[in-house]
Amino acid sequence: MELASYSILERVFLTVFPLIAIVSLGFFYARRRLTDMSTANKINIDVFTPALIFSVMSSESFDLPNYYTLAVAAAAIVILSGLVLWPACRILKVEAKTFLPPMMFSNSGNLGIPLIVLAFGEAALPAAVVLFLVENLLHFTLGMYILDPKTRLINLLRMPIILATLAGLLWSYSGWVLPAALRTLMDMLGQVAIPLMLFALGVRMTGIDFTHWKIGAWGALLAPLTGLLIAFPLAALLDLNSEQFAYLLVFAALPPAVLNYMIAERYQQQPHLVASIVLLGNIASLVIIPLLLFFIL
User: Fold this and answer.
1) Which H, E and C letters describe the chain, residue by residue?
2) Domain holding 258: CATH number?
3) Is the dihedral of CA 5, 7, 12, 13 positive or negative?
4) What's the rounded Cα separation, in Å, for the pair 114 and 85?
5) Cα-Cα-Cα-Cα dihedral of 207, 213, 217, 219, to 10°?
6) Which of 257, 262, 246, 251 lies closest to 282 in space, CA to CA?
7) How far from 179 is each of 164, 165, 176, CA to CA, in Å?
8) What is the distance between the alpha carbons of residues 135 and 257, in angstroms, rounded to a whole number?
9) Rounded CA gap, 135 and 139, in Å?
10) Residue 220 contacts residue 292 (beta carbons within 8 Å)
């Protein structure tokens, strides 16, 4: 029993340590030197992450029908989290437009993809990408509609991530084989995305604002708790296998996405309050995620 517990602790450590180390590196680097990640983040969103998505989805090992149920479950968690926590906005005396997006849209890119890959191996990368795509697509549709009902969804077709997804789906369904040189190129570009996401998260955390710590603390607790409470009955209803159930639990417990703050800032929807929710949620995940992994692994 002790040997098994040690083995689980070792796996949890090996999963979490690289994530914390890279995030910490970004944090301490930005504390010592003025660091503007805006250009790097834009390149990551426009080049490296689309390359990662296309690389995974165009792979011969990627079989999209295997992930339909997981995608439905992920979408349900995002949407139901908003519905379940809607009444909490009145209790906490915070605007729904401010509080609900961080509760619904999680850090499935910066944290979710590397976490799932490190915890479950490279074979889990396609599932991690599918979860990221579902969350991201809903964020740029439903999430933008929550903040601005006049948002034009046609603008989605201009986003490199969406274009890479569509191209990957076409490649997957067609059965085409990517030439070796292009495969190497896509793989190399995609490998930049995950470490850069984590480093950027660390840089962003230097701007922690504890002014609204009470709402931030409630968000840090309610986001993973609500997701997990929804995930358990949902997995049974959709009859997910054990592997996909584990992926879904990790997805459900992820903290709010940093993108929530950027969008709130763009629409001037109490960005400082959203920043507290996002950053305190990501700090709390340093405790919540290892505990969850100990349970799963």
Assistant:
1) CHHHHHHHHHHHHHHHHHHHHHHHHHHHHHHHCCCCCHHHHHHHHHHHHHHHHHHHHCCCCCCHHHHHHHHHHHHHHHHHHHHHHHHHHHHHCCCHHHHHHHHHCECHHHHHHHHHHHHHCHHHHHHHHHHHHHHHHHHHHHHHHHHCCCCCHHHHHHCHHHHHHHHHHHHHHHCCCCCHHHHHHHHHHHHHHHHHHHHHHHHHHHHCCCCCHHHHHHHHHHHHHHHHHHHHHHHHHHCCCHHHHHHHHHHHHCCECCHHHHHHHHCCCCHHHHHHHHHHHHHHHHHHHHHHHHHHC
2) 1.20.1530.20
3) positive
4) 28
5) -70
6) 257
7) 17, 19, 9
8) 10
9) 6
10) no
pLDDT surpasses 90 at 28 = yes
Model-wide pTM > 0.90? no
Tell me which range, 45-54, 73-82, 139-148, 278-287, is most confidently predicted by mean pLDDT: 73-82
Those residues with Cβ within 8 angstroms of residue 239's Cβ, 6 or more apart along the chain or in another chain:
69
Q: How far apart are CA 92 and CA 218, in angstroms?
A: 9
Number of domains in the chain: 1
Token pair of 81 as six digits: 């989290």
Which is more confident, 260 or 62? 260
Q: One-letter amino acid identity for 183?
A: R
The type of residue at 197 is M
List beta partners, residue 256: 106
* Mean pLDDT calculated for residue range 62-83: 90
The tokens of 173 are what? Answer: 């369904």
Phi then psi dihedrals of residue 106, to 5 deg: -100, 175
Give the range of the structural domain holding residue 77, as residue numbers without chain letter: 2-296
Which residues have C-beta within 8 Å of that of residue 289, sequence separation ≥ 6?
Answer: 16, 115, 250, 253
